[in-house]
Design brief:
- The protein is of the alpha/beta class.
- The protein has 10 helices and 12 strands.
- Strands 3, 4, 5, 6, 7, 8, 9, 10, 11 and 12 form a 10-stranded parallel β-sheet that branches.
- Helix 9 links the parallel strand 10 and strand 11.
- The protein starts with 19 loop residues before the first strand and ends with a strand.
- The chain binds S-adenosylmethionine, 6-(5-methyl-2-OXO-imidazolidin-4-yl)-hexanoic acid and iron/sulfur cluster.
- S-adenosylmethionine binds next to loops.
Length: 336
């Protein structure tokens, strides 16, 4: 067993980010080996470290609430193997047109009344057209007028489109790397990892806060989970918001039937995200309905401090408002 994976308590310096030269000469904060070493820690040591980091930067008894709305569902030309909205798979999801501003305003108001602070609009696009951006810009204005932070996830963006959304008042843009670079080709063939990095750069340069995370439970190796977290943590700067999704298995998608992930491994992923990205909002995202309240509580202990709030994600279920209010109440966690 190497020194880094020994169960004996290690000096905390071993797990601090190590400055290292990337090909381009810039410092890489978290080499994959250092992230993988965190995953290897005894569970209690890992959670303890994550709590320490969490408490240095956040109120440990506060969670941010984001409500999701699918503003344009299904019919997507990409082949993401986890996604029920792809045209490549027969999942029973019906394609819809873009929602109108009045419908979005009503949903945003309801979310605010239930206590959400952010409203996230998702569209099943590979990349929006410029005329789609004009319409979404109006939806962003509508959400902002309701007094909520606005977030969008619309697929790949050009620089000009990112600027137009910023101009409309968009606070966050969600675009996930989803998995490690070496695993990516097993799940998606219609868009590259570099395409995703390019969109993240356009969003950052437009001055929009970046929301970038991934999915675990797709049959990936622990080393690949470490590779995903390292990629996100090494973005410069790392994202303000990091959604960690557990795969929601949907019949008809290629990943349906994948062996379920050990829940402790999911909690470890949250803890490693917290340690490597101390100031980010780490969001316990898709998969909460399947994981039960005890595992969710462990995720909060591991440093998750944001959730999707409302009974639907995009096409699949999520705990309802009442269930989450009860859970947060039982844990003494305040909403933000
Ligand atoms: N179409 C846009 C895109 O992919 O960039 C935006 C919407 S897409 C549904 C947003 C994210 O949802 C994906 O990147 C993926 O992380 C997540 N997602 C999709 N299907 C999922 C599933 N079955 N389980 C967990 N997360 C999923
Ligand atoms: C993210 O990281 N997770 C959300 C949001 N960003 C857009 C989406 C989860 C989708 C789960 C499957 C569905 O409901 O279709
Ligand atoms: Fe399309 Fe996004 Fe689903 Fe991929 S994840 S198929 S891009 S909606």
């Amino acid at each position: 067993m190497s020194e880094l994976t020994s169960p004996v308590a290690q000096p905390i310096e071993l797990f601090r980010p190590v400055p290292r030269q990337k090909a381009g000469g810039a410092a890489q904060r978290w080499p994959v080996d250092a992230v993988a070493a965190l995953f290897e820690l005894p569970f209690n040591d890992l959670i303890f470290r994550a709590q320490q980091v969490h408490r240095e930067h956040f109120d440990a008894n506060e969670v941010q609430l984001s409500t999701l709305l699918s503003i344009k569902t299904g019919g997507c030309e990409e082949d993401c193997g986890y996604c029920p909205q792809s045209v490549h798979y027969d999942t029973g999801v019906e394609a819809t047109k873009l929602l109108d501003p009045a419908t979005v305003a009503a949903a945003a108001r309801a979310a605010r009344e239930q206590g959400a602070s952010r409203f996230c609009m998702g569209a099943a696009w590979r990349a929006p057209k410029d005329r789609d951006i004009e319409k979404v810009a109006e939806l962003v204005r509508v959400v902002k007028a309701e007094g909520l932070e606005a977030c969008c996830t619309l697929g790949m963006l050009t620089d000009t489109q990112a600027h137009a959304l910023k101009e409309a008042g968009l606070d966050y843009y969600n675009h996930n790397l989803d998995t490690a670079p070496e695993a990516y080709g097993r799940f998606i063939s219609t868009r590259t990892y570099d395409d995703r990095l390019q969109t993240l750069q356009s969003v950052r340069e437009a001055g929009i806060n970046v929301c970038c995370g991934g999915i675990v439970g797709m049959g990936e190796l622990r080393r690949e989970r470490a590779g995903l977290v390292a990629q996100i943590a090494n973005l410069d700067p790392y994202p303000q918001s990091v959604p960690i999704n557990q795969l929601v298995q949907v019949e008809g998608t290629p990943l349906h039937g994948t062996e379920a992930l050990d829940p402790f491994e999911f909690v470890r992923t949250i803890a490693v995200a917290r340690i490597t990205m101390p100031k980010a909002r780490v969001r316990l995202s898709a998969g909460r309905q399947q994981m039960g309240e005890a595992v969710q509580a462990l995720c909060f202990l591991a440093g998750a401090n944001s959730i999707f709030y409302g009974d639907k994600l995009l096409t699949t279920g999520n705990p309802d408002w009442a269930a989450d209010q009860r859970l947060l109440g039982a844990l003494g966690i305040a909403a933000r």
